[in-house]
Amino acid sequence: RATDTDGAIQAHAGQAAAYLAGGTTLIDLVKLDVMQPERMVDVNRLALSDIEDTDDGRLRIGATVRNTALAYDDRVKRDYTVLSEALLQGASRQLRNRATTAGNVMQRVRCSYFRDGVSPCNKREPGTGCSAIEGVNREVFAVLGTSEHCIAVHPSDMCVAMAAIGATVEVQGPNGTREIAFSDFHKMPGNTPHIEHELAEDELITHVTLDAPVEDAGSTYVKLRDRSSYQFALASCAAIVSLDGDVIREVRLALGGVGTKPWRCSQAEQQLVGATANE
User: Fold this and answer.
1) What CA–CA distances, in Å, run from 148 to 39, 109, 134, 234, 272?
2) Per-residue pLDDT averaged across 17-36, rounded?
3) Which terminal CB of the chain, N or C, has fewer other CB atoms within 10 Å?
């Protein structure tokens, strides 16, 4: 049970370890024997549970801020409505009360072949193959950013909204702190699907800082799923749009449920800027 970030990193370093916060993904995968950490470093006592305004108009979110607290924060509801909507469409109330910001960013894929512990899976056991490509692959597999080695989809709703907003992930490790652009944090599978993110082995996410809100913009998060009570997205979209009259001045779009990472639609954005906002 770490009491500060330095202690957490030291307890994690050189170990087959995992950081434990809400545990809503980690404990599931430990029970399934898919993840097998020899040590869990509990980070719930670290001073990382604040949401703070920055001097340059951004919003800095501590790693252990719970999804519920983030969704209902007045600044998030006012300036980042798409993020609040995405969070409230994710999981169940009980899970949102436990799940954390950094844990959501680090969420593992929902691929049934990855989670069954026995099927060939390059993400779980590199070099064994991808069972999903020729298997049952309706709802939890990607069509964007895939490779011949993996087609697992990134499952997060929160991350889709953050991809549209733009953000920076702040991390700390044995050698100090650094920042990673949110768009670069999650990796496409390529030839190494077992490497899912840019986080080094002993680094800890401390904060996620959202870009300043788009001025005079409207936004929404749309999620299609089999049942609305509790289900991962078959497809989702986070959209942020600002207008000059009926002309699109700025637009940010990101997709979920269809990509191997939260998918920012840069080419679509370029096509829409300067266009008339009609059907």
Assistant:
1) 33, 17, 11, 21, 32
2) 96
3) C
**Structure token digits, residue 43:** 């980070």
146 CB neighbour count, 10 Å cutoff: 21
In sequence order, what are the beta bridge partners of 237? 222, 255
Is the pLDDT reported for residue 139 higher than 70? Answer: no
**Which three-class secondary structure state does DSSP give residue 181?**
strand
Sign of the Cα pseudo-torsion (114, 32, 224, 90, in order):
negative
Residue 88 contacts residue 66 (beta carbons within 8 Å): no
Question: Residue 275: pLDDT above 80?
Answer: yes
Strand order in the sheet with 204-210: 51-53, 59-62, 204-210, 167-173, 176-181
Residue pointed to by tokens 């949102």: 96
Task: Read off the pLDDT of residues 191-219 as tens digits, 9 standing for 90 and up.
Answer: 999 999 999 988 999 999 999 999 999 99
2 Cβ contact partners less than 8 Å away, ≥ 6 residues apart: 8, 11, 41, 42, 43, 45, 46
Measure the CA–CA gap between 51 and 57, rounded to whole angstroms: 13
| Report field, pTM of the whole predicted structure over 0.85 | yes
What percentage of the chain exceeds 70 in pLDDT?
99
